[in-house]
Write a structure and sequence with these properties.
Layout (H helix, E strand, L loop, with lengths): L5 E11 L5 H15 L2 E4 L4 E6 H17 L4 E9 L9 H4 L4
Antiparallel strand pairs: 1-3, 1-4, 2-3
Helix pairs in contact: 1-2
């Protein structure tokens, strides 16, 4: 697999805080992803990004840090990735037929 292959990465960050609103904390992670410029789709359960694994993991780590810096006591992070050995994976190949 080439490092430059495009993958899909779904990330769900579940913040824990005794005093802060969960949705407001999640919004901090989504802001990081939006500002990154990568193709992404926000869903009710996770945000899916499209790009190289290397760039998406950097963005994911920044999103995690943003939630912690916003005041979360701890976070649970769930990743789902689709990686193709000899080619790119795009969101469009799975969802464009529904547009």
């Amino acid at each position: 697999m080439s490092q430059a292959n495009i993958i899909n990465l779904g990330i769900q960050i579940v913040p824990k805080s005794k005093t802060l609103d969960t949705y407001a904390l999640v919004d901090k992670a989504i802001e990081v992803i939006q500002q990154s410029g990568v193709k992404h789709v926000v869903t009710p359960f996770e945000t899916v990004m499209e790009g190289t694994q290397e760039e998406l993991m950097v963005i994911a780590q920044k999103a995690q840090e943003a939630v912690l810096q916003a005041g979360a006591d701890e976070i649970l992070v769930y990743y789902r990735m689709q990686i193709r050995k000899d080619g790119d994976v795009t969101m469009g190949e799975k969802t464009d037929k529904f547009q």
